[in-house]
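Before relying on records like the one below, remember that each one covers exactly one chain. Contacts with other chains, cofactors or solvent are not represented anywhere in the record.
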Amino acid sequence: MYVPWKVVIASCDVQERRALCNILAKQGLDPITAPTVRECEEIVVQENAGLIFCSRWLADGDYRDLLVAARRWSRKIRIVLAARVTDWDEYLEAMRLGAFDVISAPCRPTDVEWMVIQALREEHAQARQITLTQQVARSLEGASISKSA
């Protein structure tokens, strides 16, 4: 599967990272792993990251810290919380803080693939919207020029 950006796995659990890496590798993706919020932030700055699968806990914080950090990034990066969320309020909190979605851990390949597809769809729709906005702006500029001439 072709994706225009890197996929990051943010988790301090080695087994969890390995499992997600295997799922993504079967989809033809080569994810980058980060056990800490700080390392994840560095990866986002250095790489073209577009999707992050984040566990509940990282070595230096939790998913909330990563969602807060994402607000400071110059571009939109989708963060999927991959955790055993048993409380509806926790799910709502993650979504309120800006999570792209929440999937149950341990992650099933179909759930991970669905998140990648959804992120790609959103990216494509966003790119189309930007292009459409640019086309409208150009037409309006052309219209105002022809009226004044």
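Strands lie at 6-10, 32-34, 49-54, 57-58, 61-62, 78-82, 101-103.
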